[in-house]
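Q: Sequence in, structure out?
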Amino acid sequence: MIKPLKKTIVSVLVLNEANVLTRVVSMFGRRGFNIESLTVSPTNDPNLSRITLVFYGTDQVIHQIITQTKKLEVVKEVYILNRENSLYRELLLVKVNYEKSELSEIKEIVDIYRAKIVDLSKSSLIIEITGAPEKINGFMDVLKDYDISEVCRTGVTGIESNTRKFK
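A: Exactly. Output:
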């Protein structure tokens, strides 16, 4: 029987030192895991950084990779960010080439999704949007009928919430 793969978002607090990211990521690679998304950022403690990883695996494999990650001496804490008690966000910048007749339609889409046009020329515009990955995916799905020339997406970052109030 084939076990279903589950999307997992993990937050890893690591020492803020050279080559730490390489050590964590190579540990995933050596075990045959493909990382779908990866973000790294400083924390309020200058000695620590936060790595947020998104990957797929069975429950057994997820448990194994988290156990292995915790064993790395540069890792201080590992959290699974569950949908029920965590908040996820992503940033997307997308460049769209447009005809003059399409501009009002694109602006309407931007407004509906609470995005922003951050750069505008006579033939293209750059849109910035932040939100949950599902919102970003929905936005890109609506824009697919237009001439998208470039996409830059940060990947998921997340944080645990004591009282989950937002989607």
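The two ends are 34 Å apart (CA to CA).
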